[in-house]
Design goal:
Helix content is about 35%, strand content about 25%. The chain has about 400 residues and is α+β, with helices and mostly antiparallel strands. Helix 1 (about 15-25) packs parallel to helix 13. The relative contact order is 0.21. The structure holds flavin-adenine dinucleotide (FAD). Flavin-adenine dinucleotide (FAD) binds near residues 34, 35 and 168.
């Protein structure tokens, strides 16, 4: 039986970061993953360029039953700390809208940095290795794996969430939490497209491929709202604005979409009315042709506003700025970037992710009930929670 100070289960973003930090402190660290390659989600993230953090990160960018939980980790390891790390490795990166940072060449550059850090820190890797079970005995964790038994002082669970099952996501983290008596906040797909049925589906299919810059919120819940691109697809709606609001939308609720968030639409329409200018020209300036033609079929408007009442103009404006439509479902884990819910943070120390009543057991990254907004926040949570765990974890020495 091999002995380690720390076994990290999961060689993803958080597992690698944590392993390196613990290894630098002289601890003997083993990383186990059942996948043949490490960090496969990083590789496909951000369209292959990994939106690895954001210039501005605060607790407001995260969803968690305890909104204060993330503060300690974010304070101990900020986005600037991660930027400093990748700069030390010479990573070329670029800043895009809303402070999002992406690799300039490829997300694999980022994986290479984490791999190098782990190598420098002397970590051991068992990839392609199935984790079977763990027991806690004599203050140690004994793991059965397809490569034999392993004994460790500390077990770090960094197995992520359920999204993208084709990348070998599993619920093992939640099972381990339950084994050690920790509640798990029910998991659901997050940052996911929304599907529609009937006339809305027909509309989305007809407009598939068209993107509009919109402001979206849930009906009767003005906050949070997101002003970003929305994309019509063959199944419904996607794009950053929709992925963001999907974290807050529940089955049965509607979306409220302002199709022209940059304009005072009522004032514009009243001006058209006063000037007797044709509505069609104005619509053409605001929207792609396919969109406004379909819009007029769904919600007919008079060609000239000169003779319509102020009240009708208001109704037209309201439709364009408070368009309400009802999704039929979330698209599912195979299209979701993250998993909402996870290990209940009430039972974890916020300073390092250690289970409050179970010495040496840690949960970090997405397996925890912490979900970031779109924009690099999920990786920042992985880095911050992993760093604090790796730097606090205790060894025998
Ligand atoms: C398509 C896509 C795009 C994304 N883009 C971005 C982005 O641009 N920016 C951003 O911030 N976030 C993005 N995310 C989210 C981000 O990838 C995750 O939040 C982040 O990877 C979570 O890190 P983690 O270490 O907790 O889990 P993961 O990175 O998912 O790592 C978990 C690891 O555990 C292993 N594992 C699971 N079960 C077992 C088991 N039973 N035994 C052994 N090993 C196991 C897995 O193989 C995996 O290697 C994206 C996600 C997806 C799916």
């Amino acid at each position: 039986m091999q002995k380690f100070d720390v076994v990290v289960l999961g060689a993803g973003a958080s597992g690698l970061m944590c392993a390196a930090q613990a290894g630098y402190r002289g601890l003997k660290v083993l990383v186990i993953d059942h996948a043949p390659k490490m960090a496969r989600k990083i590789r496909i993230s951000g369209g292959g360029k990994a939106n690895f953090t954001n210039i501005t990160v605060s607790a407001d960018n995260f969803i968690c039953r305890n909104p204060h939980f993330v503060k300690s980790a974010l304070a101990q390891y900020s986005s600037q700390d991660f930027i400093d790390l990748v700069e030390r490795h010479g990573l070329e990166y670029e800043q895009r809208e809303q402070g999002k940072l992406f690799c300039q060449n490829s997300a694999s550059d980022l994986i290479q940095i984490l791999r190098t850090e782990c190598n420098w820190a002397g970590c051991y890797f068992w990839l392609n290795t199935t984790f079977q079970a763990v027991i806690f005995e004599n203050k140690q964790y004994q793991l059965s794996t397809s490569r034999g038994l392993v004994l460790a002082e500390n077990l770090v669970v960094a197995t992520g969430g359920l999204s993208f099952p084709k990348l070998k996501s599993t619920n093992v983290g939640y099972s381990l939490a339950k084994q050690f008596g920790l509640p798990v906040v029910p998991a659901s797909a997050g940052l996911v497209p929304l599907n529609f049925k009937d006339k809305y589906l027909a509309l989305c299919q007809h407009l598939s491929g068209i993107a509009l810059n919109v402001k979206v919120s849930v009906v009767n819940k003005p906050e949070p709202s997101f002003t970003e691109a929305m994309l019509f697809t063959h199944q419904g709606l996607s794009g950053p604005a929709i992925l963001q609001i999907s974290n807050y939308w529940q089955l049965g609720e509607g979306l409220e979409i302002n199709l022209l968030p940059q304009l005072n639409v009522e004032a514009e329409l009243l001006q058209l009315k006063a000037q007797n200018s044709p509505l069609s020209r104005w619509l053409k300036e605001q929207f792609p042709k396919n969109f406004y033609q379909s819009w007029l079929e769904l919600y007919p408007m008079e060609a000239s506003l000169a003779n319509v009442s102020h009240e009708t103009v208001k109704q037209y404006a309201k439709k364009l700025t408070q368009w309400q439509l009802y999704p039929s479902a979330k698209a599912g884990y195979d299209k979701a970037e993250v998993t909402l819910g996870g290990v209940d943070t009430d039972h974890l120390q916020s300073k390092d992710g250690q289970v409050k009543n179970q010495k040496g057991l840690y949960f970090i990254g997405e397996v925890v009930d912490v979900t970031g907004h779109l924009g690099g926040y999920n990786f920042q949570w992985a880095w911050s929670s992993a760093y604090t765990c790796g730097t606090h974890i205790q060894g025998k020495k």
